[in-house]
């Protein structure tokens, strides 16, 4: 009986450890499609972490002050497939991001696409925003 109970406990443990680590949110859960925005700023930091990448961007306001924004992009793997490399967004890179603001009004957005100010090259962000995969979603 103890052996059967031990085997059952191990099986339950294995099943529980194989479930997904956490829920993945959809665009509509966190971002507002009625609040599109265009952010022009300078990259402060680029985080290549799963399940989403994050671009930290300093955006100059009309009054000269600066606001820090966090822009969510797709997973590192999806960005690499869309043309990004680990060296694409070094600190100080000037970019323009089209996206959508967070529902709570925070300085957080999801990017649809990104354009480099220097040469006009455009890359899709591969995230959850409508059209972020270049028209494949």
Describe the fold and architecture.
With 137 residues, the chain is of the alpha+beta class. The protein has 3 helices and 6 strands. The protein has one domain (30-137): Beta Barrel (OB fold (Dihydrolipoamide Acetyltransferase, E2P)), CATH 2.40.50. The chain has a 5-stranded mixed beta barrel with strand order 1-2-3-5-4. Residues 10-24 have low confidence and may be disordered.
List the helices and strands and how they pair.
Blueprint: H1 2-17, H2 27-30, E1 31-48, E2 53-60, E3 66-73, H3 76-81, E4 94-102, E5 108-116, E6 122-124
Parallel strand pairs: 3-5
Antiparallel strand pairs: 1-2, 1-4, 2-3, 4-5, 5-6
Short account of what is shown:
About 20% of the residues lie in helices and about 40% in strands.
Question: What are the main properties of this structure?
Answer:
137 residues, five-stranded mixed β-barrel, 3 helices, 19% helix
CATH class: Mainly Beta
Q: State the total count of DSSP E strands.
A: 6
Structural class comes to: alpha+beta
Strand content: 35-45%
